Amino acid sequence: MASKKDLTEAQSFSRRRLLTAFTSGASGTKELEPAKPLRTVVAGLALSALVVVGGAFYGLVSPGLPDEWEHNRLVLATDTGGRFVSADGTLFPVLNTASARLLIPADDFSIVTTKAALLADLPVGPSLGIVGAPDQLPGSGELIGTGWTACLGEDASTVLTISADPVAASAGSAVVVSTSAGLSVVAGGRHYPLPTDHADAVLRALGLGDAPRLSVDGRWVNLFRTGTALSPMIVPDAGQPLAGTTLPAGQVVHVAGSPPEQRFLLNADGTLASISPLAYQLYLLGTGAQLGTAVEVGATELAEFTNAGYPAGAADWPEQALDVQQGTACALLATIDGSPATVLAAAEGGEDATARAVPVTSDGAVWMDPGAGSVVRAGTGEQAATVLYLIDSTGTAFPVQDDPETLHRLGYQEEDVADVPAPWLQLLPVGPGLSTAAAGTPVAAGSAGTAAGEG
């Protein structure tokens, strides 16, 4: 066994040998040069760049969820069609686009597209939305708020057309229509009821004795404002003597030398009221049958009479005899003096106005320009209350919660809203109401099938 001294000498020898190798180099070989440190740095930078570029490329071909996806976002899974609204990191399947937009404040609305695999591990809440709400909303540039036409079809049917190319309004013509309520004359912007016992005589007096009587839906007639009934004109206190003249009250006079159709009615209070040619024809069926036709008088004979300040007969009666409407009779929603109004119109060339659009309801009762729609506030004019409606490309009218935020959530501004008389909405099928509260209601099982996003 080696002694302690032997071990100490052996260790000293090994240290001297190692020191000699470091200081004298390798025996019989070339001295090794130290590596350049910059080469390692460059290689590291290149490798880092490859990692960054590779990560960016992977992000492009396989994007993940962006920042702030967790709240008030419409999340779409592009590979499965899943549709969700996010709230506090939870995904809620939503039935349709309208419901999704109603759930998200207008200023926060944003769409996130991703793959279904990236959503697989996220918490999912119950399905939300309004059953039957629209899945496609018309853009603000596709809204049509005027120029609607409702044309008479066969078998008393009515065809509503919402198109940017409406038929032209007619002037001075009329149609005679028959509904369950009786006969009416439609002229201008009104429908005038006819008396049941003098209808034929009145029609002859109006120049409509040969006009066909069109059987129509009462809803079509209601599109026009109700006018004063066209009936034989009866003058109160007719036949009573008047001071300052030998003519009785109720007499119609014509001043010598004046235009032939310029006539006046002597009222019982001693005033003179102008009477239009049409009102004069109705006068002849009433008081005129007793007192006769207009009496020719000199201007001096009427010098002491004052003007009544109002015409004889109803103020809303047409002034002249009417021509029979030619072609397909239509109601036209027009804008007159800045306000909506319905006037009588005819399909151009006698053709059906529906040729300008396509049918969007199964019964063919509603036609629209493809992709068009409307946002309207119905109940203007003679209507006291108003209701906001969204009309989508299927011709369905959806009542909308009428406040600015709800309107903005659906993607519209107040200037997109058109005023429409309420009777026009009676021609459209009505869908469910659209409101923020209804959109946030969980969908009952089985009420609408499978919600978007559920498998």
UniProtKB/TrEMBL annotation:
Which residues span the membrane?
A: 40-61
Q: Which GO terms describe its cellular component?
A: extracellular region
The answer to whether the entry has keyword Transmembrane helix is yes
Q: Which UniProt keywords apply?
A: Membrane, Transmembrane, Transmembrane helix
- The answer on whether this UniProt entry bears the keyword Membrane reads yes
Q: Which InterPro entries match?
A: T7SS_EccB (IPR007795), T7SS_EccB_R1 (IPR044857)
In terms of Pfam families, this protein maps to: T7SS_ESX1_EccB
- Would you tell me the protein name for this molecule? Type VII secretion protein EccB
| Origin organism lineage | Bacteria, Bacillati, Actinomycetota, Actinomycetes, Micrococcales
Q: Which gene encodes it?
A: eccB
